[in-house]
Amino acid sequence: MQLTTWLRLVPGRPFRRAGHRTALVAAGLPLHLAVVPLWLWLLGTMAALVRAPGAVAVTPLPVLLTLMVTPLLTAGQRRRYRALVGKDLPRPAVPGPGRNWRSAVRLLAGRALWRQVCYHAVAGPLLAVLDLAVLALWGAALVAASIYVWIWALPLQWRVTDLGYSTQAAYITAGGLALLFLGPRVNGALVRLETRAAEVLLGPSRTEKLARRVADLAESRAGVLDAADAERRRIERDLHDGVQQRLVSLAVNLGLARATLGDLPAEARKVIDEAHREAKEAIAELNSLVRGLHPAVLEDRGLDAALSGVAARLPIPVRVAVDLPRRPSPTVEAVAYFVVSEALTNVVKHAQATRADVTVERIGETLLVVVADDGAGGADLAAAGGTGLAGLAKRVASVDGTFSCHSPAGGPTLITVELPCAP
Predict the structure, then answer these.
(1) What secondary structure letter does DSSP report for 316?
(2) How confident is the model over 243-252, as pLDDT tens digits?
(3) If both were cysteines, with which of 66, 67, 346, 377 could 411 make a disulfide (CB 3.0 to 4.6 Å apart)?
C-alpha cells in the first residue's frame, strides 16, 4: 500500500495534513542530499590542490555529474509535491526542441538549468538540515509524550519507582505534548519555505511568468475577437435572410396592392403609398446596417470586391488597389475593411476632397493599408474624443496593429495602418 493511502487512513483533517507535510519533509531528505557527495568530492579535490599545488588535478566530473542528475532530481521534486500535497510546480520555458549540440548549448546557457543546480547544490543541503531538525523534533516529541509507555515496557528489575523520577517523567510528558502541539506549525512553516524555494528556483522566472501571461492574454483576446466577428457574421446572416426578406416581401405586396386595387378611396391609397415608401426606406436602412455589421461580399469574395463596392457608392472617385497573394484571417480582414470604410466616410463628410486612393498590400506577415485624399487636412487623432479616428485606432489596436494619421492643415491626409497576419 502506498504512503498516500496510509495517510488517508489517519483520522481528522489536521492530522492528515500534518501527516502529508511530514511525509513531504521525509521524502525530500534523500533528494536534498543527492548531490552533496559530488560537491564534497569537488571541495576535497580543491582542498588537496591548495595543500599540494600541482600534485592533484581538479576534475570537472562532479560538476558534469551534477548537470546530468539535475533534471532527474527536478522531476523527483515535482513528483514529490504532486503526490504528497497535490501541488504542481510550474515548469520553466524550454530553450528549444532537438537533441543536437545547439539545443545543449541553449540549455547550458539558459538560466532555468542553473537555477535548478542552485536549488539542488545550495538550497537543497540547507533544507536537508531543516528537514532533519523537524524530523528530530517529531521524534523527540513522540518519545517524550510516551515516556510512561517506555517506562512500562521496561523489565521490572529495570524500572525506577522513585517519586522524583515519576515527577520528571510527568514533566517530560508535558514537554512532549507541547512539542506535538508545536510540531505541525514548525512543519507547516518548513513546507511553505520549501515550496517557495521550489517555485522560485525550479519553476519559471518572473520574466517567463509575465511572458506566459502576455501570451495567454493575447490568445484569449484573439479568441474573443474571433467570437465577436463570428457573432457579427451571424447577425448579418439573420438580418439578411430573415428580417430583410420579410421587408422585401412586405414592400412587394404593398406595391401590388397599390397597382391592382384601383377602386380604393383616396385615404386608403395614401396609407398604402406611405407604407410602401416606409418599407423601401426600411430596406435601404437595413442594407446599410448589414453592410456595417459584416458585408456578405467581404466573406464571399474578399477585400478587393468589398472595398470596390464601398468606393462605388461614394460621390467622389476612389482608386482601389489591392494586392493580396492570400487572404488574411477573417478578423484582420474585417478590421481592414472597416478602417477603409470609415476613413472614406470621413473623407466624404469632412475632408472636402475631390479624390481618394486606397492601397492594400501584404508585405511579409504585415497587412499594409493606406488611405490618402487631397482634401483640406487638419484631422487630429488626439482631439477625436473617442470617436472617428480614435475609434479606428482602437479597432486597429485590438489586433495588435499600428495606426498613424498624417494630416497637416491644407492637406493632404494620409492614414497608414499595419495589421499583423498570422503566418
Answers:
(1) S
(2) 667 777 777 7
(3) 377
Q: Quickly count: other Cβ atoms within 10 Å of residue 3's Cβ.
A: 14
Are the C-beta atoms of 369 and 322 separated by less than 8 Å? no
Residue 332 to residues 119, 137, 376, Cα–Cα distance (Å): 46, 64, 30
Q: Is the confidence at residue 309, as pLDDT, over 80?
A: yes
Angle at 413 between CA 412 and CA 415, to 5 degrees: 150
By the 10 Å C-beta count (0-12 exposed, 13-18 middle, 19+ buried), 278 is classed as middle
As a dihedral over the C-alpha atoms of residue 244, residue 246, residue 249, residue 255, rounded to 10 degrees, the angle is -80
Cut 0.70: pTM above it: no
pLDDT higher than 60, residue 282: yes
Question: For position 1, what pLDDT does the model report?
Answer: 46
The values of phi and psi at residue 366, to 5°, are: -125, 135
| Locus of grid cell 546530468 | 68
Q: Alpha-carbon distance 339 to 346, whole Å?
A: 11
Under a CB-based contact definition with an 8 Å cutoff, are residues 86 and 17 in contact?
no
Rounded to 5 degrees, what are φ and ψ at 146? -110, 30
* Cell numbers at 159, concatenated: 524500572
**What's the CA gap between 122 and 23, in Å, rounded?**
22
